[in-house]
């Protein structure tokens, strides 16, 4: 009996430990969607590494794609995190998930959003500063030689069948570029469009056309987005510029496309510190484009790109984390 009584304080102390541990915030198991495009796969591997090394989460990457992933998050509560979703195409569905308390817009993984526009090379603007505006492009139309016709100037448009073919075509007409001597050139494919820009840039030749960011091309070549001088008319863009049957297109700059990180509400509630990291980290388009260019040049996958980023961009990721988590992550990065 004396032995039993003597052991009670120790037993009571030990029995209190699990309760104290449960009271502390725990990250637990986290599933992350590894999407099938380079920037999203890079972000998935980056989040996985940081959540494991800095926040002691147990993570798993699961295959993902935009619509199936968002649907699964709403209906099944998994995966916990979709690091990169271009939300314009599924906004209604995502908004409903948020209203029902199933999802959260954690933050914008691309701080500037997806970017579209009409572009010219930086070296052309260095020689002719007025080319940074559409009026300057019109005035110097003769610089942009057409690949087939001597009496026309070339505007490289979006490939046929892509949504951006509609918007680029409407803006080409609204800007009265045909009257200025331009003709739309259909490159035939995304690869051919990139190839036309790369060829011109390597030879320091003129180029004028549609492109978007972040992309490897924008990471490799310094380009200037031409200013239409109008700002963004979002209502007209949505109701007319994007519609094939729009007969009265007006001039408007392209609005940015929101690119969010989406999480389940369950993850946000059970792992608030990890959620705060997810909600706070983001990259600019030039940063992401540079990473994508490096991936293309090195034929690197998302995991390899993650290591490259952590080793070479400490000034970026160190701003995402509190001091203690930064130290943990640095120790892990030092071992890569």
Automatic annotation (TrEMBL):
This protein's record includes keyword Signal: yes
Keyword Signal on entry: yes
Keyword entries, A-Z: Signal
GO molecular function: transmembrane transporter activity
Alphabetized SUPFAM superfamilies for the sequence: Periplasmic binding protein-like II
GO cellular component, one term: ATP-binding cassette (ABC) transporter complex
Signal peptide: 1-23
Annotated ABC-type glycine betaine transport system substrate-binding domain residues: 29-310
InterPro entries assigned to the protein according to its UniProt record, in alphabetical order: ABC_Gly_betaine_transp_sub-bd (IPR007210)
Top-rank taxon: Bacteria
Protein name: ABC transporter substrate-binding protein
Organism (species): Oceanospirillum linum
């Amino acid at each position: 009996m004396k032995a039993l009584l003597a052991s009670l304080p120790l037993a009571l102390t030990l029995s209190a430990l699990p309760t104290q541990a449960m009271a502390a915030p725990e990250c637990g198991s986290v599933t992350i969607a590894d999407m099938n495009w380079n920037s999203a796969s890079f972000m998935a591997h980056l989040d996985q590494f940081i959540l494991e090394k800095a926040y002691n989460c147990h993570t798993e990457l699961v295959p993902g794609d935009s619509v199936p992933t968002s649907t699964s998050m709403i209906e099944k509560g998994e995966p916990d995190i979709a690091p990169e979703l271009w939300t314009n195409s599924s906004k209604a569905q995502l908004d409903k998930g948020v209203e029902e308390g199933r999802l959260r817009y954690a933050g914008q993984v691309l701080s500037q959003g997806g970017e579209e526009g009409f572009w010219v090379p930086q070296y052309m603007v260095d020689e002719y500063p007025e080319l940074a505006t559409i009026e300057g492009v019109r005035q110097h139309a003769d610089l942009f030689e057409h690949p087939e016709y001597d009496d026309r100037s070339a505007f490289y448009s979006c490939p046929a069948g892509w949504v951006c073919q509609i918007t680029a075509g409407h803006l080409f007409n609204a800007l009265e570029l045909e009257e200025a001597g331009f003709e739309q050139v259909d490159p035939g494919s995304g690869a051919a469009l990139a190839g036309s820009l790369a060829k011109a840039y390597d030879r320091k030749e003129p180029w004028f056309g549609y492109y978007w960011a972040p992309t490897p091309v924008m990471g490799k070549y310094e380009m200037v987005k031409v200013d239409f001088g109008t700002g963004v008319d979002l209502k007209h863009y949505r109701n007319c510029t994007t519609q094939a049957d729009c007969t009265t297109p007006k001039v408007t700059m392209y609005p940015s496309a929101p690119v969010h990180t989406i999480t389940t509400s369950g993850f946000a509630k059970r792992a608030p510190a990890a959620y705060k990291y997810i909600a706070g980290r983001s990259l600019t388009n030039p940063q992401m484009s540079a990473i994508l260019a490096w991936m293309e040049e090195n034929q690197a996958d998302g995991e390899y790109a993650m290591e490259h980023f952590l080793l070479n961009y400490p000034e970026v990721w160190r701003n995402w984390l509190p001091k203690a988590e930064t130290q943990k992550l640095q120790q892990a990065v030092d071992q890569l």
